[in-house]
Design a protein that fits this description.
Chain A is an alpha+beta fold. Chain A has eleven helices and 33 strands. Chain B has helices at 22-25, 49-52, and strands spanning 35-40, 44-47, 59-66, 75-82, 86-91, 97-104, 116-121, 124-129, 138-139, 144-149, 153-160, 166-173, 176-181, 187-189. Classes of the chains: A alpha+beta, B mainly beta.
């Protein structure tokens, strides 16, 4: 359980060792290292798996500087370290031995088994004046009831147990459950043997294959005796349960059905970490286009392999009337031999010569001209633009990143913004980004010529670590604005000054969107202003650990920053006049997980944009813990 | 600095020598489900991941929405680093009305990138932009999609081209894919498999 967030902390703090100017930064590093197990009294180099062949490994090529022995003096006290470790251990005990029997009682619909776990002093509470959010249509019945302003009323323990059982009763015999501990702490830090409190999420769901899919999710505050295997063996250890929220959803059938193979795309030809020894962080992308203008959307799938042993895979699938796909990679001239020289998994379709046919650009700087939907022809561009930045030449290597497109100067030619993830920031805690690898704004001059206008425009990203960017009109002045996200700090909104330059705007000075990987834009509330959703890292374990840092050990602003690091995705609601409000937590769309590329789309055609959000970093073993 | 507490192997707890070994040997934000949230009238979202059926617990990365089978409902394409590298999900929601718009710029760039469209649907105004979302190693289709619920038509569609030209179309029938050309009043209905001239 405890490890993912700690890894995140390690990962980030590992990068500030070189320049750790602040004792709390160093202290936190060591906290993380200590809990994660990296700590050592000797100077320790982080192990890095050697690269196998060529530039095979995007995953393992990172390294960190050695730990500075002097930094050890700023470590958390041994007592504090043990305390945090202990809390995580107790969290594991609670889930594995305590709550497992509670979950079993719930799915077996046994009121007596539940009541047996409640103590004689049990205090039950349930939300009153519930705020209901509902969806009801011919298929779906979904409701979320939550305590408005956290108001609750007492409920007797048998009545509460009956209520919990009644919620899962419709799910039938196939019900399964999972508990997530969002926070856990002893009520008195000095007396672990006394009562503890946890914020717990219980999810119960049935087997979709066997019957109509149903799910129940409960959020509650639990008061319980100190977790131990022995204590959990008998009943009466739960002293309080305050039910804060209940969500129930049911559909007559799953709302989506996976059909790739039926449509003629064999997914098994693409890299799958679960089947490979070498784990790649981001094997490839998906890029939609209509290269032949036939109103059937086509799909390019890129797949970074393990070159030179295995060449990258590039597949262009033509969409067919009726819904199928046909592999036209070779037929369209995107021949493997040529592509082997080019490489690149980040791509964009964009009509660069205004002939109405979408051309294809890879982020390494290669352009393929679309010749009237009949074939793609490789277009050699004099001195790859990719290699030039404001600071001079940089090495051309595969980067996380990509290309987004807009006609930023409204001259009728679509321009390119190449965003890239550079090196580690000097100190993310102070928002100092100093990567020499900068983003590029390339003005399309027509006739396949581009001018690097990054410096003049002021859009180089400031050395942020940029996996994604998005063009949209933030202030309804018809000029394209640009949001650039940041893996290691706050993103930035570049507002178009309408004269070829941009001004930087912090969309919400009171919050930040630390740790974002992906971005989606759209008017979620139909108020005529385009909103932003940023996919970023959420960690339950991180919330537990950082929530239990000893008070006063680090300055408030540092603790705030740590909170944001693990708080997940952000949603900036645009109220116009460049006024944005962070709303992800209120809307409960923040805690997706280790989130990547989200999509905003109206899946049910009700006129409101829905959200699909991907998540998950590295999965190894279902029987082992995770955070 | 030794490990601060003891490892309980029965619980699956482990101790690693270096943080970077975690992802080489252990789970790291593992088996997290991709999630689907339905927008409830612009003010709330409901998590319908389980009943949605698109909640693979593989290591999800890119996603995009596109209408694969031309039925007017947006399907979903998902790219994962593990646990099924490519997933295409057919949309099986209750069908509702839609309008899809492809743009053909003249003074503006030819594919109309940067165009803003404001549809009046019943009492609602729905604003969409023509930017092919490239959110994270993905690119969404260019055509602009409006869900109309049960409205039989779009009463008014205002199109603001990147050139600055503003055009207004009225009474556009639902469940069509139309082509609008800058400076032209013509509304051309397009069909899958019938190429449109650039």
């Amino acid at each position: 359980m405890p490890h993912a967030s700690l890894w995140i902390v390690c990962f980030l703090f590992g990068r500030v060792f070189q320049s750790a100017r602040w004792k709390w930064i160093v202290g936190l590093c060591l906290l993380a290292l200590a809990i994660c197990g990296c700590g050592s009294e000797q100077t320790e180099h982080v192990d890095v798996i050697p690269e196998t062949t060529g530039d095979a490994s995007l995953v393992y090529e990172r390294s960190t500087a050695p730990v500075n022995p002097e930094a050890l003096q700023w470590s958390l006290d041994k007592e504090d370290q043990e305390y945090l470790w202990d809390l995580e251990h107790h969290s594991n005990l609670l889930v594995q031995f305590g709550l497992r029997s509670v979950g079993t009682a719930v799915v077996e619909q046994s009121v007596p088994a539940l009541v047996e776990r409640f103590s004689s002093e049990f205090a039950g509470e349930i939300f009153s004046d519930a705020r209901n959010i509902t969806i009801n249509d011919a298929l779906i019945s979904s409701v979320r009831r939550s305590a408005d302003h956290l108001e609750t009323r007492p409920i007797e323990k048998t009545e509460l147990a009956e209520f919990l059982v009644s919620l899962v009763q419709p799910l039938g015999d196939s019900a399964r459950f999972r508990f997530d501990i969002k926070r856990i702490f002893p009520q008195d830090r000095q007396r672990l043997e006394e009562l503890w409190t946890a914020l717990v999420m219980l999810r119960v769901w049935n087997d979709r294959a066997a019957s109509a899919p149903q799910e129940v999710t409960l959020l509650f505050r639990l008061v319980f005796e100190r977790p131990s295997k022995e204590r959990f063996a008998s009943g009466g250890w739960i002293h309080g349960l305050k039910l804060l929220q209940v969500a129930q959803s049911r559909s007559q059938r799953p709302l989506f059905r996976e059909v790739a193979a039926d449509l003629g795309i064999d997914g098994s030809r693409f890299y799958d970490n679960w089947n490979e020894t070498l784990k790649k962080e981001n094997p490839g992308g998906i890029y939609a286009c209509d290269f032949n203008r036939d109103n059937c959307v086509d799909l390019l799938i890129t797949d970074g392999r393990n070159p030179p042993a295995e060449p990258d895979v590039l597949c262009l699938y033509q969409g067919l009337v009726g819904g199928g796909f046909r592999d036209v990679t070779q037929a369209m001239g995107l021949d493997a031999a040529r592509y082997r020289e080019v490489r690149g998994i980040h791509a964009v379709f964009v009509d660069l010569d205004n002939d109405g046919w979408e051309d294809l650009v890879f982020s390494r700087g290669d352009i393929w001209r679309n010749e009237e939907g009949k074939r793609f022809v490789h277009k050699k561009i004099a001195s790859s633009y990719y290699q030039v930045t404001g600071g001079g030449a940089v090495e051309a290597r595969e980067e996380f990143g990509g290309i987004t497109i807009a006609d930023y100067d409204r001259d009728g030619w679509v321009d390119l913004y190449v965003h890239r993830s550079g090196g580690a920031p000097k100190s993310w805690i102070e928002d100092v980004f100093d990567s020499p690898i900068r983003n590029l704004l390339l003005r399309n001059l027509g006739d396949w010529k581009f001018e690097n206008v990054t410096q003049h425009a002021g859009t180089d990203g400031g050395g942020r670590v940029v996996f994604s960017s998005a063009w949209f009109d933030a202030n309804n002045d018809s000029w394209p604005d640009l949001y650039v996200i940041n893996e290691f700090g706050d993103g930035i909104l570049y507002v178009n000054r309408q004269d070829g330059t941009f001004k930087e705007v912090d969309v919400d000075p009171n919050t930040d969107d630390f740790g974002s990987m992906g971005i989606a834009t759209g008017d979620i509330d139909n108020n005529g202003h385009i909103d932003l959703y940023l996919g970023g890292m959420y960690s339950k374990a991180g919330s537990r650990v950082i929530g239990n840092l000893p008070e006063g050990i680090y300055p408030d602003e540092v603790v705030d920053k740590l909170d944001r690091l693990i708080s997940g995705s952000e949603f900036y609601q645009n109220d116009g006049e460049l006024s944005f409000n962070a709303q992800a937590a209120r809307l409960q769309i923040h805690d997706v997980g280790w989130a990547w590329g989200p999509t905003l789309a109206d899946f049910n055609n009700d006129g409101w944009l829905d959200l699909f959000a991907t998540a998950g970093y590295m999965s190894r073993d279902r029987t082992k813990p995770d955070g | 600095m030794a490990q601060p507490g003891k490892v309980d192997e029965e619980l699956g707890e482990f101790w690693v020598g270096a943080p970077f070994k975690i992802r080489q040997q252990h789970n790291l934000s593992a088996f997290e489900r991709n999630r689907l949230f339905l927008n409830v009238a612009g003010g709330d979202f409901l998590d319908v991941s389980h009943i949605g059926g698109a909640d693979s617990d593989g290591d999800g990365r890119a996603s995009l929405a596109m209408d694969v089978n031309h039925d007017g409902m947006l399907d979903l394409v998902v790219r994962q680093a593990g646990g099924g590298p490519l997933l295409i999900y057919e949309n099986r929601f209750v069908p509702q009305n839609f309008l899809r718009v492809t743009l053909r710029g003249r003074q503006s760039n030819r594919l109309g990138i940067g165009t803003r469209l404001v549809a009046t649907v019943g009492e609602r105004q729905i604003t969409r932009e023509c930017y092919p979302a490239n959110t994270f190693m993905s690119q969404a289709p260019l055509a602009v999609h409006f869900g109309l619920a049960d409205a039989p038509q779009v009463k008014q569609l205002v199109v603001i081209w990147p050139s600055g030209l503003e055009q207004t179309f009225t009474d556009l029938a639902a469940n069509c894919h139309i082509l609008l050309t800058e400076s032209s009043d013509q509304i051309q209905v397009v069909k899958p498999g019938q190429p449109i001239a650039p």
